[in-house]
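Case study B.
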Amino acid sequence: MTVPPSARRYLVAPGALPGFGLSLGYTLAYLGLIVLLPLGALVARASALGPAGIVAVALDPRVAAALRISFGLSLCAAAVNVLFGMLTAWVLTRYQFPGRRLLDAAVDLPFALPTAVAGLALSALYAPNGWIGARLETLGIKVAFTPLGIGVALLFIGLPFVVRTLQPVLVELDREIEEASATLGATRLQTLRRVVFPPLVPALLTGFGLAFARGVGEYGSVIFIAGNIPYFSEIAPLLVVQKLEENDYAGATAIASVMLAISLLVLIALSLLQSASHRRLGHV
Amino acid sequence: MSDLVETTQSSAPPRDHGATQEAPLARTLLIGLVVTFLFAFLVLPLALVFSQALNRGAGAYWSALADPDTLSAMRLTLLVAAIALPLNLVFGLVASWAIARFDFVGKSLLVALIDLPFSVSPVVSGIVFVLLFGAKGLLGPFLAAHGIAIIFAVPGIVLATLFVTFPFVAREVIPLMEQQGRADEEAALTLGATPLKLFVTVTLPNIRWGLLYGVLLCNARAMGEFGAVSVVSGHIIGGTNTLPLQIQILYEGNEGAAAFAVASLLAMLALVTLAAQTVLAWRQIGALARGASH
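Model:
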């Protein structure tokens, strides 16, 4: 990554290997065609609407309700995922028990399972006559076709983000510091809270941010279980699809650009966080 | 990843972690809690898919899959993956060569842009193509005048799939090639290898597992994508319907058993992907244990 001092004068450091111009040219052209040009169309449409136009759409009561539901539930689900993800990552890295490797592989299931399959399965599982839903129903808890159902779907798709960002950090954690802490008379809980937890915070925040960003945009797994009742369990991405189906390009563009802007902000915040924590811990 | 602990521990002399471990009771409780949670949360939905799919017997299962609309959705899903996969594979290799083998200004920006589709909502990934090629899109009038259909047609589905699977191969191969360095390739060049021979005999064998891993993930997403494809597809049954969209149509048409039968196909794809992924991860850990750095 670092450019040697002698090459600072060049935009490209001289190298012996062939194919730089061709490979970079192809990369830029393909990136432009498949990713940047289409995203540019959204940005062009959004700027034609102007900030006032976007805000006007976003403040429409039904849109505002959907945005609140999407952002609020994504925040809640990401927070719960941080808790469960931390426990899961800890148990999977620190303890030995039969079936550990299998469970470890299963954590990636939400990444690998198509969202429509996840949505279908979760809605059947938590429906009033489902395996889990029927038991919760006797306790008076309704999950499917309520905001709680959206939360369950977002928990499902967000879990691997937290576990997989945390695991490498846990693996590299130096156990001798824990031994030192124990030798100096700390109880196990004190060690966990004061010694083990602090270095995990950047990874936890990254996992939180990734799960949140994914949750806000999630569509497939949610619409099956949500019931999609306006003002109650209707998410913002669904409203984008509906506006598009009604040929309301302006409305769809406005909601889509709000969602895109938020996920880009989260992305930038995460990369700033990462470089800050790298500097503090003396990496790179 | 967690298997790393196991390998390092088994090669090191046994150590007493008594002071740095939780009490046995707390440990058992934590393991029980996490196992129950993962079982209810991950394993149960998967088990439900297969149980519901086979609920009415194998005959009903096969006839649900042999439905002409489902077969046509299957064909379209395979076709789209067969187009999207090679294109993004070539892109991933070429981009990795440019990024991992040369130093140039703006490299980290380029890497960030390649990852961009991962942070875009599937619905947004679909709408951008409608805004570009749809009837009221920027190029809509031009396409209509020339009789070219992209939105609500197969090309739109391919484009949306290309967009959402764009980073998979590149992001697996770039770190791998960066980690391996250029020394091997420079040596081959000195020994007189042509660029093509250099790539096929030196670069490709070094990255083959990472490449395979990226292709697997790319394929799983290409066949399973729902949101982006749903926006551009128009849901024309027998025409622009892919397998994930067929699940929704069957589900909304109260054909639950058939929806689960189709879902079981995609769930099997996910299981195969996961299994291959796990095997590849173990292989990589084996390579790490042989002394390569991560």
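Residues 1-15 of chain B have pLDDT under 50 and may be disordered. The remaining cases will be described in the next quarterly update.
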